[in-house]
Hints:
By secondary structure, the protein is of the alpha/beta class. The chain has helices at about 15-20, 30-35, 40-50, 65-70, 75-100, 130-140, 145-155, 160-165, 180-190; strands at about 1-5, 25-30, 55-60, 60, 105-110, 125-130, 170. The protein has one domain: P-loop containing nucleotide triphosphate hydrolases (Rossmann fold, 3-Layer(aba) Sandwich).
Amino acid sequence: xxxxxxxxxxxxxxxxxxxxxxxxxxxxxxxxxxxxxxxxxxxxxxxxxxxxxxxxxxxxxxxxxxxxxxxxxxxxxxxxxxxxxxxxxxxxxxxxxxxxxxxxxxxxxxxxxxxxxxxxxxxxxxxxxxxxxxxxxxxxxxxxxxxxxxxxxxxxxxxxxxxxxxxxxxxxxxxxxxxxxxxxxxxxxxx
Length: 191
């Protein structure tokens, strides 16, 4: 079974993924896989054609700030980039599934809905958190301004839409225990 784990930037997806890993699930971090795929020669050539040579600072390093400045101010470029990266990520996920047919695979993906990947998973867990908490987390984690975080949030679907499309919701609001919520969902999935 493949379970999508998604949520807006700074919602706490990685924390939830770690809990599911403790429960025995395999974690497939779509963002990490996508970052590795940027260096596949064919994908790299497509990205350079779409965004320019400035997308790479060296043979093994992308220019994240440059790429973000383009894709988070131009939704068409973001969509085109997703069309380059996401099919390759899906292929990698299928390889993991073939090697682990009896395991629950948690596909952690920030843009599960935005990239229209919900049909690639059997169930969807959405992590939600208050926007101010998300902004603070991302500013601390990435060392960027509030305005830059808000640009990224603006390019993601609102939680209200994602909630309607999700099977399970985890509230990362410091009122509900994350372990309790995650374990309840895990038990529901395995039965």
